């Protein structure tokens, strides 16, 4: 494609970067100009991502200077960052500065945690190191696409995958004041959510056939979830989150429970969710239990709700690499580029993964 909008990807050989490349390959308006890898510049992308060989048979990882050169001469550019937190901010800052000098309109969506917080102090409180580019923070807003009608800043920080699923389930409860503000969340994630490098928590022989919790009530994404919920609803919610590692590769299942303010039937709850997401093409409100296989490798989310006595339970499923990361980022980028937000994202889930 020669008339597409140039796109560059940060993130090297990581799973989310690979998912971004897959989505860009099927996007009718984006033209991939380069992908950064500090550790493997010059090596073939197809060697790191064999499943993408048909889309990128000769593409090679580039150094940062090559990406800067690729940005010159274009009226606008789409910059996706899937670099690790702590490393992404400085690289993004350098590329945005280069775009400003070259007179290029750069649109950035960062999937790392570096621009998810509204201040350097809030970031530093969670990650316990100084923010690498604090002057850029004001240029980013962190939100799930379904919870803001438009981007209020030039660039977007996409929430994490657990945060995406939790917010899709929780925000309607808070926005419609259906429940008390104390929420209890249980989440189960696939192993790809922990990154490509094997660890005790992701190594297949240790994880297969097992299920266990980790970072219970102290997961680092809790402040992020609370901040995004506040932005979407104006409500300060108390998030009590217990994440779990599941014995599958892709997908997230969350259950959000809360005390109802007033009696509410399950049918009325489903009607409220359907009303809240009526203009959201990627959210399906269903009258059955959502299943991870219904959404894996798609940008879709499934949500249901049940009530009993004074309690509501909301179940939501997303794919952690797509809707929870690369797909949600593409959805935001489409908006920043003034394209229909579904562009390049309408392929359904394969179903039998």
Tags for this entry?
6-stranded parallel sheet; single chain; 353 residues; Dihydrodipicolinate Reductase, domain 2; alpha/beta; 13 strands; Rossmann fold; 7-stranded mixed sheet; 2 domains
Helix/strand-derived category reads: alpha/beta
Strand content: 15-25%
What is the CATH homologous superfamily assignment of the largest domain?
A: Dihydrodipicolinate Reductase, domain 2
Number of domains as seen in the coordinates: 2
Poorly predicted tracts of residues: none
CATH-assigned fold name of the largest domain = Dihydrodipicolinate Reductase, domain 2
Largest sheet at a glance?
7 strands, mixed
Percent helix range: 25-40%
For the record, what CATH class of the largest domain applies? Alpha Beta
The CA-CA distance between the termini, in Å, is: 31 Å
Strand element count: 13
Task: Write a compact overview of the structure shown.
The chain is of the alpha/beta class and 353 residues long. The chain folds into 2 domains: 5-142, 3-Layer(aba) Sandwich (Rossmann fold); 161-319, Dihydrodipicolinate Reductase, domain 2 (2-Layer Sandwich). The chain has 10 helices and 13 strands.
